[in-house]
Amino acid sequence: MLLSEFAFVRPDIIKKVAEFAVKEKWGENEEDLSILQKYIDYNFEIAYEQNLIKFAEDKSYCLWRVGHLVTDRGEPITILFVKNRLENKQPYLALFVFKGIEFDAKVGDSTVREKAPKAPRYKFPSYHANYKLNFNFDHYLSDHESRVAAALPNLTSYQRYLIVLGAIQTAHLIASQVAVPQWFRDKNASVGGYKWLLPLRITDPDLSKKPNLVAALDPDNDSREYLVRTLLPPEWAYANARAVISSIDAKISHWV
Question: Quick check: 86 pLDDT over 80?
Fold first, then answer.
């Protein structure tokens, strides 16, 4: 279940979550919460799949814990949804944001003492360094040439091909040190899933430095291979990775 199908969520709800949560970079500036929006969208999908939405007996309201986000005092953050009275709209409406393990939720004329639901468990698949890599260089170097050219300027297309090929193969070999899980849902899909990101460090192999590019991999377990679907600037890949990491991870903290 997608959050956009389940409930109407006003922008002020997203802002309140950002206000309560430990401060981190959720976008290009203070007003931009696009990374948080994706975190909320994807974590709701995961929580719904794991039956972690806590419904009242009469389904008049429900509670959802916002992933693994906490306040600076370590308190969980929970959104209260109430039944939407508007017809032909999402069944629920996000009404309040609470912090704390327990809180008083006002629903209609009643006040109910509630507890925060459980946080989701992220069930990453194993990364298989023995899988074959399947490339689509026309996509990287022709369809999206500007991305690679921005990361590797002043080179010919063939030079970029050689460099990108070597960088992806090297990252695949050391995947146990560098591979990062992500939650990915295609814009036309109704469900998402776990996939992998490989940071490509071309100008400096230092793992504490920002990678030049990030390769997005789709697994094909039947064929025992990874399709290297596309190459992204690290700041573009960050949100999908942050969505399924319990706290800011050293592997991605310098991507934005």
Answer: yes
